[in-house]
């Protein structure tokens, strides 16, 4: 059981890796103090929180009972967990799992909100709702009936790389580490836009937000996920059927197509090149579908680069057609009126927000959905299955290129 204590350290202060202590030694040191001073104990600047102290006293009990040497081991690191993921009660030897920490982007409506609700209802998660509109998110959580103790709203605007970096800093300072699951869910869809609009750094807004913002976020938070000792740590990027041209829905024009990515290479700026990934004329609906292809390719590239080394599960999914969400807010009123019954009665692809939230919550927490590099879908009986991606959305050469171009654009290379 690796108890890591230095999340409690200011980042400027780090303890050399060689400095290792057994929990037993720390306990002895703490026990030598009066209970009052124990309450405020600090060790090399580390203040011991209540649960660590509880760990210590059970360690003492166990030490006395079994006379084992070095039951627990603490390695002081510059960044670490405060509570081990799996805890066991000395009395009956039963294991318990601590609450997981999950960040969900765009949890202020639709799928993200429904997922936060589904996870909150299990009581097993501390949910960080990473949202651009703080008040909207608070109100949404309240009206969805998510109890206060299960969530925290933190500001994140994916259309600004500064905001993404600020979010990561804030998360790290919040003392909520480690991160166990990251869900990249937020998105914008601008089907009626005649001209492109741009992120703070000048990228076309749909690909800039849905893909590049999430790309930077997940690359930065990968380190946090690596440090998690949770039994199944996951990075989930929401994809869609409409980015997959091996389906009927994916063949509705305009179709996703990244082409040779000359527009992405040019920075999607629309000034010295095209605002579209493939370098073509601006089309808002296509830009969204292209962004979903980038999302699904990014998930697979993460899997290829990091799954074996880190044990992190990388996954994507199509949650079903949630035709009632805010995603369609920019569409014409007639579309918003007809789309839900069309999906309900004609394609039968419709799912409620509640059902979609349960699906994504499964990808977050189901022990049976730990396979990495997978794109999940659900059949008519709402059973999950591993779905096939289109040729383009599973092209490993394109995935590598999206990765390399994206890391240049977000300043990682
Ligand atoms: P919603 O519009 O209801 O939710 C999108 C969320 O993203 C909102 O919370 C929105 O915030 C947030 N968001 C938008 N821009 C930003 C930004 N710049 N920074 C931070 N957050 C932002 O849509 P859905 O719930 O339908 O979409 C969720 C995911 O599901 C998307 O990835 C979408 O591609 C995917 N999906 C949806 C399908 C559907 O049928 N609806 C089908 C397949 C996939 P705010 O509330 O402030 O606007
Ligand atoms: Mg689609 C099985 C058929 C199916 C499914 C599951 C979807 C899902 N759609 C299907 C079929 C069709 N759609 C057909 C036959 C048409 C032509 C009438 C059609 C049209 C259509 C439009 C105009 N569909 C749409 C739009 C949108 O603007 C939505 C979109 O593409 O957003 C990017 C959309 C969607 N259809 C879906 C899903 C899930 C969407 C939402 C897109 C997404 O989030 O990826």
Automatic annotation (TrEMBL):
Record's protein name: NADPH-protochlorophyllide oxidoreductase
Pfam families in UniProt: adh_short
Reaction equation(s) it catalyzes: chlorophyllide a + NADP(+) = protochlorophyllide a + NADPH + H(+)
Major localization listed first in the record, in broad terms: plastid
GO CC entries: chloroplast
Family in the record: Belongs to the short-chain dehydrogenases/reductases (SDR) family. POR subfamily.
UniProt xrefs under SUPFAM superfamilies: NAD(P)-binding Rossmann-fold domains (SSF51735)
Role summary: Phototransformation of protochlorophyllide (Pchlide) to chlorophyllide (Chlide).
EC number: 1.3.1.33
Endpoints of the signal sequence: none
Enzyme class (EC, first level): oxidoreductase
MF terms (GO), sorted A to Z: protochlorophyllide reductase activity
Organism superkingdom: Eukaryota
